[in-house]
Design brief:
It contains four helices and five strands, in the order E-H-H-E-H-E-E-E-H. With about 120 residues, it is of the alpha+beta class.
């Protein structure tokens, strides 16, 4: 509950595909006896951040409206965007919607730092 409302965290198809791929890699690593890798650390980081978002949907860093990529605005019809920094310089991008009784945090993407910089038009200096 956040401010008296139920909070749901939902993954877009894109974010779900990335998460499922990550889970598959981790399962394969576990079957090979690997129990501490970058993939496993990233998966734990995602799980932890999803829990934090459930507790407080505004947990992430708010992204200015003028920085919202056209792709997100047109594909998901978003007018607010948030990011969460994950391990290994990965990012989780989400938006918040809701009603009088619930808040929905829709995770749009889980992307690496290079893709994040490209999508948000940050330049290397």
């Amino acid at each position: 509950m956040f401010k008296g409302k139920i909070v749901k965290v939902i993954l877009s198809r894109n974010a779900n595909e990335e998460l499922e791929y990550l889970k598959k890699v981790v399962r394969e690593e576990n079957s090979e006896g690997i129990n501490n890798s970058e993939y496993q650390t990233l998966l734990r980081s995602i799980s932890q951040k999803i829990s934090l978002i459930k507790d407080n949907p505004q947990y992430g860093i708010h992204i200015a409206k003028k920085k919202i990529p056209v792709e997100y605005a047109s594909r998901y019809d978003v007018d607010n965007l948030w990011k969460v920094n994950l391990s290994g310089y990965w990012r989780m991008i989400y938006t918040i919607t809701g009603s009088e009784v619930e808040i929905i945090a829709l995770i749009l993407e889980i992307i690496n730092h290079k893709e994040y910089d490209k999508k948000f038009k940050y330049r290397k200096k």
